[in-house]
Amino acid sequence: MDIRRKMNISKRSMRMMIGLLWLALSMQAMEKQTPLVSNIYARDYQSLNGKWNYIIDPLENGYYDYRLEPFQKSGFFENRKMKHPGELIEYDFDTSPAMDIPSDWNSKDEKLYVYEGTVWFRRNFTVHKEPGKRYVLYFGAVNYDTKVYVNGKKVGEHIGGYTPFNFDVSDVLNEGENFVVLKVDNKRHKDAVPTVNMDWWNYGGITRDVLLAALPATYVEDYLIQLKKDEKNTISGWLRLNHAVEGEKVIVEIPGLKLRKELVTGAGGEVAFEYKAKPELWTPEDPRLYEVQIRTDHECIHDRIGFRTIETQGTSILLNGKPVFLRGISIHEEAPFREGRAWSEEDAVTLLSWAKEMGCNYVRLAHYPHNEKMVRKAEEMGLMVWSEIPVYWTISWDNPDTYQNAKNQLHDMICRDKNRCAIVIWSIANETPHGEARDNFLRNLSQYARSMDNTRLISMAMEVTKAPDYVNRLQDNMNEYVDVVSFNQYIGWYRATVEDCKKMKWDIPYQKPVIISEFGGGAQQGLFGTKEERWTEEYQEELYIQNLAMLDKIDALAGLSPWILMDFKSPRRQLPGIQDFYNRKGLISKWGIRKKAFYVMQHYYENKKEQYK
Ligand code: GCB
Q1: Separation between Cα atoms, residue 46 and residue 397, nearest integer Å
Q2: What DSSP string runs through 230-295?
Q3: What is the C-alpha separation between 253 and 250, in angstroms, rounded?
Q4: What pTM was computed for the model?
Q5: Which of 111, 279, 342, 604 has its CA 20 to 30 A from that of 530?
């Protein structure tokens, strides 16, 4: 007997059920996030940066109806237009203001300066579809919770403000005119990553590039090319196509090494390879990058890849087998010379040139993955990189969704940047409160990072505790799961006095290299006085002099990244006339003026460079 009769369902309802099931399945298929396309800038793409119209929607009126049910139809994602004068439509992208993208909305519209909520964005664009091509819509980053619609259809969503994501939109693109609508929500949540509490501006919006890539039906989705672990004379790697095509021919060529390999993909659309080679190794002094080409019958991807080894031995960090001191500085993704988020190559060059001028060979990109241009520029300029996920302060350690979120961000950070030899450290957390749930969370993250990449070092910014007799003790169960023990300390600013630095001792019971991931204090650039007066350049200068002398007593000291290169916006910093919503611990002002302490660091690094020659 037919199942319909058995369950007493009419033919009509049966048809409706099948229809709904089909709709649900196809929506699911449509919304599936496409695995990240590696090295997107080397693909054939059109930029969707530029003017996007936007609608501020604090009540999420464009998403929910008046019963707070999500709209199936009639949401702002439909981008509707009046068809006759009697029609009621209470929004209009065409007559709404426009914003330059990439940007953060806080610095673009006064009304949005401290706004946290939903803003809708829309951009029209034209595509001349080439037969057989796949079209992938790529976002460098959007903060924080994003829903993406193309021509009124939802193509997917993404959580997290600092990592890239993309969707295959081929099936919803029209020949000719199209529109893309984003619902972007930057409200903070206790269970989010980062959580509600942080010391930087929660810049909302489409903060990095938007690209529409036109890819061949079968394309190289991802690849890795690097020195094989523990072997300086072997380059190894793998690549993967976007689907499981067996027998696809791929050529990987490194002309500078006269290497050319013809490969054939296996059943999973993947292939691994190894070359015997003797590349000149990448160093901060000579940041050699090799042109790499990956060719199939349908595409040619260019990359520039450097080769180096990074490891620890006892309390030393070895770069290419030689001890190196990480002469660093911490940097936020904060724009120099204007308000807002940094995102462009020009921003990257400005910030990194300042680091170079200070004598750095290393930068800590805090507290989240920075944009890809920043990492690539650092690599070209000879700066090693610490890259970090925003597992910051008091995360919801017990919540499995929070863990999954942190893990996704870790995954996407490593996935995007695994070919960047400049990155030497993946950092999984910053200043997190001790406890069993936190230990489990971080142990799992560390193991996951290692399973994805066993060639780099793992660290996290820990904290020291105050013990009697001016002893500072580092005690953290996570020591087992990091290669480098790093910690932040603010003696002379939040704790003790600058004078006390002279008496401080260290108790660090781990046989691992130590990086001081943060130290520092605030000064308002141009405010001069005595070294006893807070906020003066002299106070900050003296704090740096005494901290450096104090930190140099740590036997295992292998690097520093003082807090911070440039002043940055933070709602936690309210002191009128001094802070005005800026964290003033920068060694350089927002307007590019070096404070006195900048030169203290510069001098210290000159000496360190000599010592490690
Ligand atoms: C820290 C945090 C950093 C803050 C800094 C400060 O320990 O890691 O995000 O901005 O202190 O200025 O207090």
Answers
A1: 41
A2: T-TTEEEEEEEESS--TT-EEEEEEGGGTEEEEEE--TTSEEEEEEE--PPPP-SSS---EEEEEE
A3: 10
A4: 0.95
A5: 604
* pLDDT tens digits, one per residue of 557-578: 999 999 999 999 999 999 999 9
Percent of the chain with pLDDT over 70: 95
Residue 582 Cβ inside 6 Å of ligand 1? The answer reads: no
**CA distance linking residue 472 with residue 524, whole number of Å:** 29
- pLDDT value at residue 8: 56
For the chain, give the longest Cα–Cα distance. 94
CA 241 to mean position of chain CA atoms? 24
Cα–Cα distance for residue pair 456/256, rounded to 1 Å: 25
Across the beta sheet with 465-467, the strand order is 465-467, 471-473, 505-507
> Is the shortest distance between the CB of 483 and ligand 1 below 6 Å?
no
The closest-lying atom of ligand 1 relative to the alpha carbon of residue 198 is: 9
**Pocket-testing residue among 195, 197, 199, 534, ligand 1, by greatest number of atoms within 8 A of Cβ:** 199
Residue 583 CB–ligand 1 contact under 6 Å: yes
Local structure of 227: helix, strand or coil: strand
Q: What is the pLDDT of residues 210-260, one digit of tens each?
A: 999 999 999 999 999 999 998 999 999 999 999 999 999 999 999 999 999
Report residue 283's pLDDT band, with 50, 70 and 90 as the boundaries: very high
Angle, vertex CA 333, rays to CA 328 and CA 339, nearest 5: 130
Residue 230 exposed, middle or buried by CB count within 10 Å (0-12, 13-18, 19+): exposed
154 has pLDDT over 80: yes
Asked if the model's pLDDT at residue 143 lies above 80, the reply is: yes
Please name the amino acid found at residue 168: D
Q: Return the residue whose CA atom lies nearest to atom 4 of ligand 1.
A: 199
The tokens for 270 are 């993947």
For residue 471, how far is its CA from the centre of ligand 1 (angstroms)?
22
Give dist(CA 201, CA 193) in Å, integer: 14
Q: How confident is the model at residue 2 (pLDDT cuts 50, 70, 90)?
A: very low
DSSP 198: -
Helices 400-417, 436-452: inter-axial angle, 10-degree rounding: 30
How many angstroms is it from 272 CA to the middle of ligand 1? 42
What is the tens place of the pLDDT at every residue in 42-55? 999 999 999 999 99
User: CA triplet 478, 331, 558: central angle to 5 degrees?
Assistant: 50
The torsion angle over the Cα atoms of residues 351, 354, 359 and 365, rounded to 10 degrees, is -20
